[in-house]
Design a protein that fits this description.
With 503 residues, the protein is of the alpha/beta class. The chain is 37% helix and 22% strand. An 11-stranded mixed beta sheet has the order 8-7-6-10-9-11-12-13-14-16-15, with helices on both faces. Strands 4-3-2-1-5 form a 5-stranded antiparallel beta sheet, sandwiched between helices. Helix 12 (358-368) links the parallel strand 11 (350-355) and strand 12 (378-383). The longest helix is centred in the first third of the chain and has 29 residues, at 117-145. The radius of gyration is 24 Å and the shape is globular. The two termini are 37 Å apart.
C-alpha cells in the first residue's frame, strides 16, 4: 500500500475500529491490554497503568518508519514506555499493509487478540478506581505541605503568626469535597492588550489601546504532571463551537472564569517586597490557552511570589503567522509600560519569561523602556525565541544588556517551528541552535540534548523537567551554568555557551 496510508486521518480511522486488544511485548512476551477510546490509549500492564494521547503513538510510528528498527533502546530518551507502544505501532503498520523490509517479519508475527466491549469497560472501571486512589494520595500529600489550608476554605483569610485564623473560616460544603479530590484551584493575574469578546465571554484576538487587567480562575487536575499542559484533544476543543464542553477538571487544566480588575487594584495586589514573574506567550495562542500554559508554569516552577501573564492579541490560528508578528511587536509599548509599573509597584526582582514570538513583544518593550530603569532588578529568559538573529543583534541586543541584569537564551537544533519560521523569513532565528548564535553579555543554553527526535520541540522549556529545573536555578536562584551542572560546549567564538549532558 502507498505511503499515503500513513496519513494521520487514515491512522485515526483505523484506531476508531479498535476497542480493546490483548498484546505481548516484543522483548519479554509480557501480556498487556490496550484500550483505545476518545483519542486516548489506556494500557493495563504488569508494571502499572499508562495513558497517553494517540499523537504519542503516531510520533513513535513515524520514528519507526524512519529508522526501520524495533530495538527498544533505539527510542529510549525520545519516547516513553517504548516496549508497550512498539507492539501497537507494528499492529498499525500491519493494518495499513505498510511495507518495511527490515522489520517485515516482526510486523507479520505480532500477536494480537481482540477483547469484548464488556471487558474493555471493566478495564476502564478499574482504571478509574486507580485514579481516585492516586488523587487521594496526592491530595493528602498536598494538604500536609500547606502552611494554611486555603484549598479547603471558600474564603481565604489572613493568618497570624501562631497559625490561627484572624477571621472565621467557611469550610467547603460536602458536595465540594469530591471536587477537591480531583483538582485544585489557582488564581492567575493577567494584563492583556486583547479586547473582550462578548460572544465567548473571554478575551479574543481584537486589539485595544489600553491594557485590560484581571484575575483568571484556573483549576488543575490533582494528577497534574510537571511539564504537561493537560488539555482536551483538539477535536474535543472544537466541540465548543457548538457549545459542547468536553474539558474535564479531573483530567485537564480548565479556565473556569475571570474577574476584571482596575489598574489600581491590580498593582495594589503586588506585594511591595516580593519578587515577580511575568510570562509572555508565543504565536498561535488564544487567551484561554495562554492562561492554561501560564498556570502550568506557575505551578511547576513553584514560584513563591507574584506571577502574572501578559497576553498580546495573537490570532490563535496557524494561518495568522505574519499578522501575529505585527501584533507581538505592536504590543511592545504596552508591555514596556506594564514592566515599568511592575517595577514601581515593588522593590523585588522582576523575572520575565518570553516564549517564541513573545520574544518579539519583549524585545520591542525593552527598546521602549525609559532610560532610567533600574538594570539590577530585571532577569530575563528567552525560551525558543522566534526572533530574526540579525534584527536581534542590530536592533534589540543593546536594549537588553542596558536594562536587564541577566539574560538567558534557550535554543535547540530540533525546533521544527523555528525551522519553518526560518524558511518563511529566509533568516535564522535566535532560538535555533543550528548553528548556535552567541550574543555578548548574554548566556546561551543549547537544549538540543533534552529534545525528542521527530517532535515539534518548540515548548521544551516548559515540558522537559531538566530545563524547568534549570530555569528555576538560573532565574530564581541566580546560579551560574557550572553551578547548574551544565557543560561548556565548543565554539569558534571567544564566549562559551552551555548545554545539558546527553540523556
Amino acid at each position: 500500500m502507498a505511503a499515503t496510508s500513513l496519513q494521520i486521518e487514515n491512522l485515526e480511522k483505523l484506531l476508531t475500529q479498535i476497542s480493546t486488544l490483548q498484546m505481548k511485548t516484543l522483548s519479554t512476551g509480557a501480556v498487556f491490554y490496550a484500550n483505545v477510546q476518545n483519542g486516548e490509549i489506556l494500557l493495563s500492564t504488569n508494571s502499572g497503568w499508562y495513558q497517553f494521547d494517540v499523537d504519542e503513538l503516531f510520533r513513535l510510528l513515524f520514528d519507526v518508519v524512519f529508522r526501520e528498527s524495533i530495538q527498544v533502546k533505539a527510542y529510549r530518551g525520545e519516547h516513553k514506555i517504548v516496549h508497550y507502544k512498539l507492539p501497537l505501532v507494528l499492529y498499525l503498520l500491519r493494518l495499513c499493509d505498510y511495507q518495511l523490509p527490515n522489520i517485515e517479519s516482526a510486523v507479520a508475527s505480532i500477536q494480537v487478540a481482540e477483547i469484548s466491549d464488556d471487558e474493555g469497560e471493566l478495564l476502564h472501571e478499574k482504571y478509574d478506581t486507580y485514579l481516585q486512589e492516586k488523587r487521594m494520595r496526592r491530595l493528602y500529600s498536598r494538604t500536609r505541605e500547606m502552611e494554611a489550608p486555603q484549598e479547603i476554605v471558600i474564603n481565604k483569610r489572613a493568618w497570624d503568626d501562631s497559625g490561627s485564623s484572624s477571621d472565621s473560616i467557611d469550610f467547603l460544603a460536602p458536595d465540594k469535597i469530591a471536587e477537591a479530590n480531583e483538582y485544585f484551584n489557582v488564581d492567575l493575574l493577567y494584563a492583556t492588550s486583547r479586547a473582550r469578546n462578548s460572544s465567548i465571554g473571554l478575551f479574543g484576538s481584537e486589539k485595544v489601546k489600553q491594557l485590560n487587567y484581571g484575575v483568571a480562575h484556573v483549576s488543575l487536575p490533582t494528577i497534574h504532571e510537571k511539564g504537561v499542559v493537560e488539555r482536551p484533544p483538539f477535536y474535543e476543543r472544537a466541540l465548543r463551537l457548538f457549545n459542547i464542553e468536553r474539558a474535564d477538571p479531573a483530567k485537564h487544566i480548565v479556565l473556569k472564569g475571570d474577574n476584571a480588575l482596575s489598574e489600581r487594584d491590580f498593582f495594589n495586589s503586588v506585594d511591595t517586597k516580593s519578587d515577580c514573574v511575568v510570562f509572555i506567550h508565543g504565536f498561535n495562542v488564544t487567551f484561554e490557552e495562554a492562561v492554561c500554559q501560564a498556570a502550568q508554569l506557575k505551578v511547576d516552577l513553584a514560584f513563591d511570589g507574584h506571577f502574572s501573564l501578559f497576553s498580546w492579541p495573537s490570532i490563535g490560528d496557524l494561518r495568522g503567522y505574519v499578522a501575529d508578528k505585527d501584533r507581538a511587536v505592536g504590543a511592545g509599548h504596552l508591555l514596556a509600560t506594564f514592566i515599568e509599573k511592575m517595577l514601581q509597584a515593588n522593590t523585588g526582582n522582576l523575572y520575565i519569561v518570553a516564549h517564541s514570538m513573545g520574544g518579539y513583544c519583549l524585545s520591542q518593550a525593552m527598546k521602549s523602556l525609559n532610560a532610567d530603569i533600574n538594570t539590577g532588578r530585571i532577569k530575563i529568559a528567552l525560551a525558543a525565541p522566534d526572533i530574526d538573529q540579525e534584527d536581534f543583534k542590530n536592533i534589540y541586543a543593546d536594549s537588553y544588556t542596558r536594562h536587564a541584569d541577566k539574560i538567558t537564551i534557550y535554543a535547540c537544533d530540533r525546533d521544527r517551528a523555528l525551522f519553518v519560521s526560518r524558511l518563511l523569513h529566509q533568516g535564522r532565528r535566535v532560538g535555533d541552535a543550528k548553528p548556535i548564535t552567541i550574543f555578548s553579555g548574554m548566556e546561551t543554553v543549547d537544549a538540543s540534548e533534552v529534545t525528542k527526535f521527530l517532535s515539534l520541540n518548540h515548548s521544551y522549556v516548559f515540558q522537559d523537567r531538566r530545563v524547568l529545573l534549570d530555569l528555576d536555578l538560573c532565574l530564581f536562584q541566580g546560579l551560574s551554568p557550572r553551578a547548574r551542572h551544565l557543560r561548556p560546549l565548543p565554539s569558534l567564538l571567544e564566549q562559551t555557551h552551555w548545554g545539558f549532558d546527553p540523556v
